[in-house]
Amino acid sequence: MKFKTSLLAAVALAAASVAATAAETTAMSPQAQRGRYLVRTSGCNDCHTPGYAPQAGQVDEKLWLTGDALGWKGPWGTTYATNLRLLLNGMSEQQWLNHARTMQPRPPMPWFNVRAMNDEDLKAIYAFVKTLGPAGTAAPAYVAPGQPTSGPVVQFLP
User: Fold this and answer.
1) d(CA 88, CA 132)
2) Which parts of the chain sit beneath pLDDT 70?
3) What are the angstrom distances between the C-alpha of 93 and each of 61, 98, 103, 117, 119?
């Protein structure tokens, strides 16, 4: 009986969580909803959300785009995925558009894909990230080639 009660409580909690997420999504503006879709399908979370790819995308949305301490090491040195929630929190929409159009960060960031987005898509991403609000800490700083790193890295061979 105790197991059945625990199971029912777990199911009820999961259902409430799904309902809350659905309510939050529908409470977003259509523009922010579009941004959420783009963030999810354009691969932003793959690097900028800790554990997203290894957990097959099953990461709480409150952690989305908070950056990651996983390093990407190659001939360019070691880079880390930026905390986009902190970055965009400090920008106006126009500053974000300018940044997205001119940035050229080190690998493996596919900056050319961001530049290929139209203004409406970039504004939608901005609107969604702003609904999430600032969270997390800044990603580790870039490490020059040949310098030691701490923490895990994905090693690209030359």
Assistant:
1) 11
2) 1-26
3) 22, 9, 15, 15, 10
